[in-house]
From TrEMBL:
This is Histidine--tRNA ligase. HAMAP family: His_tRNA_synth (MF_00127). The gene is hisS. It catalyses: tRNA(His) + L-histidine + ATP = L-histidyl-tRNA(His) + AMP + diphosphate + H(+). Belongs to the class-II aminoacyl-tRNA synthetase family. SUPFAM superfamilies: Class II aaRS ABD-related, Class II aaRS and biotin synthetases. Its main location: cytoplasm. It is found in: Cytoplasm. The keyword Plastid does not apply.
Length: 420
């Protein structure tokens, strides 16, 4: 029988890597908490309708990337491809409007998109996500952007580019869309097939097509900045001013667009110079009309999502530190059969004292036990002689120094040697 493998595009994060994830997640949690955000846990699947309306029918995500299935009672459900729509859904459903505004939330977890798997692009991947709901202040946009940059700073990431743009609002976007169509119309025949179909439905998305011909054509396209209404250009200026005040260097990228009506004003991305083709580590922006698109009242919002796989890849590429690789405080070694019972008692005594400790249960040879112990700070060696005298031989693995201590005092000695 053929062995069962994991589905295409998903990956196992093994212990050699999972500790790095834990480090990144820990830093993210600390920074988000420090910025006054609270954690929210949201469901992994939602009604398909939430994403169709909350992300938009004409996006790649909804058109081609969703994992949609019917449950046993025939409801159409979808594994979440992102978490913004769910956050807004939860805000409305849980009546978070009755809490002090704005509501500042963070979450982290797996997202699912049916895409062509490649380095940095998977079908199940994790995002770190923050969302601020209930404020249209440009200072909130600044806070969200700065939170992501503080994270990358804290993680030691460099060679990042922050690109920012404004996508306007329903008041000014129609005029821009028309200006764009007028510019593109003479080139319609030269555009790639998907862009030709975007022309009517969602021409803004032609601006971020990766096809070289489309790119060359859109090079001279009208600048969205020239079409912004007073409110949108004022908001954008205030965001840029806030970022300047904090010393955050950003470039305007007129190609950075989100072609949907409920994406408004600020759009931004953080790009890594060390990732190759999948270079976006973070995408975010404002979505003041999303709540209405899923049937709610007007509710301004802004947030970002950052892919943890791409963060870790960038950090590895750049030789960033992930903190200390987890290691056991102690590994208990029974020299022979006579010491096994005492070794087991010592193991649990250390664990009860809050030390991390492990031992071998298979009766392996001393050499094999010492090999396992080499990853620990201390080896606690027990033979018949030590057992008879109620002592433990403590070997500090890094230095090779060995000392003897009372069986009952072993935990305390280890703790004091570790400075805890
Ligand atoms: P891309 O242009 O790479 O497809 P996107 O615009 O689809 O990105 P967003 O929806 O803005 O990405 O998601 C935010 C972040 O989530 C991205 O910047 C990236 O770090 C990460 N991400 C998105 N899709 C994937 C994926 N399939 N695998 C791994 N990470 C991903
Ligand atoms: Mg994508």
């Amino acid at each position: 029988m053929a062995e069962i493998t994991a589905p295409r595009g998903v990956r196992d994060v093994l212990p050699d890597e999972s500790w790095k994830w834990a480090y990144v997640l820990g830093q993210f949690r600390q920074i988000a908490d420090g910025f006054g955000f609270s954690e929210i846990h949201l469901p992994i699947f939602e009604h398909t309708e939430l994403f169709c309306r909350g992300i938009g029918d004409t996006t790649d995500v909804v058109e081609k990337e969703m994992y949609t299935f019917e449950d046993r009672s025939g409801r159409s459900l979808t594994l979440r491809p992102e978490v913004t729509a769910s956050t807004v859904r939860s805000y409305l459903e849980q009546n978070m409007a009755s809490r002090p505004q704005p509501v500042k939330l963070w979450t982290a977890g797996p997202m699912f998109r049916y895409e062509r798997p490649q380095k940095g692009r998977y079908r199940q991947f994790w995002q770190l996500d923050v969302e601020v709901l209930g404020s249209d202040s440009p200072l909130v946009d600044v806070e969200v952007i700065e939170l992501s940059l503080e994270l990358y700073r804290r993680l030691g990431m460099t060679n990042l580019e922050v690109v920012i743009n404004s996508v306007g609002c329903p008041a000014c976007r129609p005029a821009y869309r028309e200006a764009l169509r007028a510019y593109l119309r003479p080139h319609l025949g030269e555009l790639c097939e998907s862009c030709r179909s975007r022309f009517d439905r969602n021409p803004l998305r032609i601006l971020d097509c990766k096809n070289p011909t489309c790119k060359a054509i859109t090079e001279g396209a009208p600048d969205v900045m020239d079409s912004l209404c007073d409110e949108c250009s004022g908001h954008f200026a205030a965001v840029r001013k806030g970022l300047d005040l904090l010393g955050a260097r950003t470039h305007i990228d007129k190609r950075l667009v989100r072609g949907l009506d409920y994406y408004t004003k600020t759009a931004y991305e953080v790009l890594s110079g060390d990732l190759g083709a999948q270079n976006a580590v973070c995408g975010g922006g404002r979505y003041d009309n999303l709540a209405e698109s899923i049937g709610g009242p007007h509710l301004p919002g802004v947030g970002f999502a950052s892919g943890i796989e791409r963060i870790v890849l960038t950090m590895e590429q750049q030789g960033c530190s992930f903190g200390r690789e987890p290691a056991l405080d102690a590994y208990v070694i029974a020299v022979d059969e006579t010491a096994r019972d005492e070794a087991l008692k010592l193991l649990y005594a250390l664990r009860r004292e809050g030390l991390s400790a492990d031992m071998d249960y298979q009766g392996r040879a001393m050499k094999a036990q010492f090999k396992s112990a080499s990853q620990a700070a201390f080896a606690c060696i027990l033979g018949g002689d030590e057992v008879a005298r109620s002592v433990v031989a403590l070997k500090e693995m890094a230095s090779g120094n060995q000392e003897e201590c009372a069986f009952d005092g072993a935990a305390q000695v280890i703790r004091s040697r570790l400075g805890r």
